[in-house]
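(Protein data)
===
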Amino acid sequence: MRRRELILAFGAAAVMLAPLPLSAQSSSKVWRIGVMETTSMALNAPNFDAFRQSLRDLGYVEGQNLVIEYRSAEGRGERFAELTADLLRLNVDVIVTRGTPAVLAAKKATTTTPIVMAAMGEPLMVVASLAHPGGNITGLSGYATDLGAVRIAGLYNMGNPVVPPQWDQLQAAARKLGMEPQLLDIRKTEDIAPAFDDAMRQRAGALMVSVEALTQENRTLIARLAAKHRLPAIYVSKEYIDAGGLIAYGPSYPDLYRRAAIYVDKILRGASPSNLPVEQPTKFELIINLKAARAIGIEVPMTLSVRADEVIE
């Protein structure tokens, strides 16, 4: 299969896949929101900015009636337990999480403080049902199952409990397309470069990168190694394209964060997380980086480019 046909098949497989502002809040109340993230505020800027703007639209102003306590695990999932404890010591009114390890740590630490998932791979791991979550957790699922040319490698952290089911689905999707899946299991930053070497030894023709704490923290490294090895890689969110990646198709994470702020608002106005249904992504993005394509010698077909929400020249 030629590289042009490869990227067309790769992209085609991937694509197959407002409340009122606050008016009755007490002017003397200062709400404290804890945010537990996989990466730093700088790396998470597009998503966190959308979250902040949505809160402002709802009447919450930092320094007046709102304090946001931002905590980052810096790509190390084992840190979420201590970060949760830190936020609980501050008596936050709500904890906002991203990713499975973060919400699992929060769920283990508290059954009373409301938890809003800005994005979570498999919410049924922490709620009774999507329609009726029960308990103190609700929010948004960031799961997109139909993503996912030749041998396709999956760069996945199998130590993250939400990842093995995603790998199973990638295997099934790849085989339906006549492709051979190859697992590149990474557990720490030092595993990433050797994983690419293994992919090249096995003659991988394309790479699927999971979205989770380790790959988010190292997205610039991953994009650089993909370019170095001239390996077409597809990601699940735009932040990887901003770091130099080739193509992304998945939920709009800024939109998820905007909607997470709406959940926070409802809880602060008295709603119980147990009665707020977990919602699925409603806005998806296809983003293509033509500069990255040229760097690895790929010509992106016009049929794919015209379907893109954003094309980076």
